[in-house]
Design goal:
Two copies of one chain form a homodimer. Helix content of chain A is 44%, strand content 17%. Chain A is α/β, with parallel strands linked by helices. Chain A folds into three domains: 45 residues, no CATH class; 129 residues, Response regulator (Rossmann fold, 3-Layer(aba) Sandwich); 140 residues, Response regulator (Rossmann fold, 3-Layer(aba) Sandwich), CATH 3.40.50.2300. In chain A, the strands form three sheets. The first copy, chain A, has a six-stranded parallel sheet, sandwiched between helices. In chain A, strands 7-6-8-9 form a four-stranded parallel sheet. A two-stranded antiparallel sheet of chain A has the order 10-12. At the A-B interface, α4, α5, β2, α6 and α12 of A face α4, α5, β2, α6 and α12 of B. β2 of chain A pairs antiparallel with β2 of chain B. The structure holds a DNA duplex.
Chain lengths: 341, 341
DNA sequence: TGTCATGGGTTATGCGTTTAACCTATTGTG
DNA sequence: CACAATAGGTTAAACGCATAACCCATGACA
């Protein structure tokens, strides 16, 4: 291991105490001569001193680790990190955390108890939870009082948590209004009805769609199930001129299903997704969607983590704005007849 | 924080020494009466004792942390974790590591020095490196002698590293042979020529394609650049009946480009990718590709990590097999005329 | 009766860092 | 000249756990 260089090694070599070296490292140089400071710094550099987190962890109470826990829901079939939304969030979090000097430890689990254990054993400085929207945060909060922020969670009465969410309702509303403006009158809503956010997105859609009619297809959480569901509801689907799926993945998949069955998109049916994943650009036609900025949410998360650390107990919720991103999967309907089928 | 329960708390409450409690925890019960063992276990359970890694890290020399470092290459434009191959690898690694009782700490960087620092400060039990195929491992090895495995790396003369790779050459060969069997005679190879693996995939392709003719399009690493490149080489592209891109992302993108310009896939041009990402199933037509099993590679990685830990110095390379996955993006050419254009 | 092994533990030390409390020699002040 | 303040450090304890070395009482055995 090319024997680790420790503070005591540096101290001994210079005939100083470890306290002095430690103080230099932390910039507490008020009571140390410039001369000494320079000598210490030079040797630290020369010997390539790298602090041992083991010692720091024990001596202080902060670890610089942020635990990011993703809910390993069955719907992902063991591939959570491959989900476009999850990986985009993780990516943004990784860069923001590193920028703030944190380390990111990742865990995937369904088990709420494991989250506590995970946080506790590593003395986490904070936690970020993805996909635990309907969980009981109160328990977590009781067990430990480190800051943790939840993506797409909700605020309980006693407001003991930081919730970071996007304006799902408005996103849906924008889609509804847009389709309406493009001349659509009958739209299919596609959702697995699982995550809390879906409800809001659809409610928003209905508002924006005005007097347009909506149908609702509740699809299962596995791909094969969804394809089967589409087949079984073939008639209903063909009654619509547009579809709004609550995620890009579902939207792309639905487009794919339509195309496979000879229905061209957007000529025959227009499709809109949600999230603005990378796949929106690579599918054909490019998918119109609602964009959420993973980078911005990650920045907010890190900011919240810091703020909650400083004045703990203070808590906030942040609802980030979303924005319709128009691409090629929606067509304008001009003909009045066509509109009625 | 609901005050952490420590070993000493348990010990005191039972009137025992910390050593005894620690021994019970680690199952070293040879010299402890069954009676005592039970009492200790019961209290550990009741008080919900969670070990502090801080103490363990310092007392022993292993941290149970595996650092996973991904090369934050510019080509990803700050979104490494969103790359389909990276996220699939990470997902598989996460589950395998957890299964083996490890914790996964992730880092994205281009800087080789940071890798050393990262590993050293956390006393990592091992490292997994993604995308550092052309780096100088020797340096890393000098700095510290923890096991580390490299995805798609290479073995140096003095064999001081574990390389985990797939049979890129054979993958390419299978594609070439398949296209040839399907009646194709002119194929375009698409690659950014960056990562070492590309060379092998293309070399393999040429072998499998036999007397078929290949053209080669070296594309830039950013999306806009690639689209421009396709446009500029419009003529050359149209000379071919098939294209083999070195990754699914490039393949899907290329399909998209073709469709946008009125060339249908696979009727006019067939396309094959590499990796078997999730997008293969969601793009239209579904992409024929070469499958690599991220799960299998992750299992090997964890196995290697363990083995190298036990008898350090011993090193191995593993070349995992790949397999052609036929979907809908390749068409059989029967007409002899058509084959010649 | 003296010695030895064994069961059932305890004591003490070390891991690398931080930090509050303490120390000493020199200079400044009334 | 007595005293305080300051510069420039040092000492020692603490953090939570693991583990090698040690200890004592009891029973077996020669």
């Amino acid at each position: 291991m090319a024997e680790r260089v420790r503070i005591v090694d540096i101290a001994q070599e210079l005939g100083l105490s470890t306290a002095t070296v430690s103080n230099v490292i932390h910039g507490k140089t008020k009571k140390i001569s410039d001369e000494t400071v320079k000598r210490v710094q030079a040797l630290l550099e020369e010997r390539r001193y790298i602090p041992s987190m083991a010692g720091i962890l024990l001596a202080q109470n902060d670890s610089r680790i942020i635990g990011v826990v993703v809910n390993d829901h069955e719907k992902y079939e063991g591939k959570v990190l491959e989900d476009a939304f999850v990986s985009a969030s993780l990516n943004a979090l990784l860069f923001e955390l590193e920028r703030a000097g944190y380390f990111m430890m990742v865990k995937a689990t369904k088990d709420w108890g494991e989250v506590v254990r995970f946080a506790s054993m590593w003395n986490m400085d904070g936690m970020v939870l993805l996909g635990f929207c309907d969980s009981d945060y109160k328990k977590l909060r009781e067990k430990m009082h480190i800051p943790f922020v939840v993506y797409d969670g909700f605020i309980e009465e006693n407001r003991t948590i930081c919730n970071l969410t996007i304006d799902n309702y408005d996103g849906g509303r924008q889609v509804g209004a847009y389709l309406r403006r493009m001349g659509h009158r009958r739209a299919m809503l596609i959702s697995d009805n699982d995550i809390c956010v879906d409800q809001e997105r659809m409610a928003g859609f209905r508002e924006g769609f005005l007097d347009g009619q909506t149908d609702f297809l509740e699809v299962p959480m596995n791909r094969e199930g969804r394809y089967r569901c589409y087949k079984e509801n073939w008639e209903r689907i063909q009654m619509c001129t547009a579809a709004f799926a609550v995620s890009d993945v579902y939207a792309a998949e639905f487009m794919h299903f339509l195309q496979e069955h000879g229905i061209s998109v957007p000529e025959k049916i227009s499709v809109v997704g949600f999230d603005d994943n990378a796949l929106c650009e690579t599918c054909f036609p490019r998918l119109t969607t609602v964009g959420q900025d993973a980078g911005e949410r990650a920045r907010m998360a890190v900011y919240a983590l810091k703020r909650l650390r400083e004045d703990e107990g203070d808590v906030f919720e942040e609802i980030l704005p979303v924005q319709l991103i128009v691409r090629d999967s929606v067509r304008r309907i001009t003909d009045e007849k066509e509109r009625q089928e």
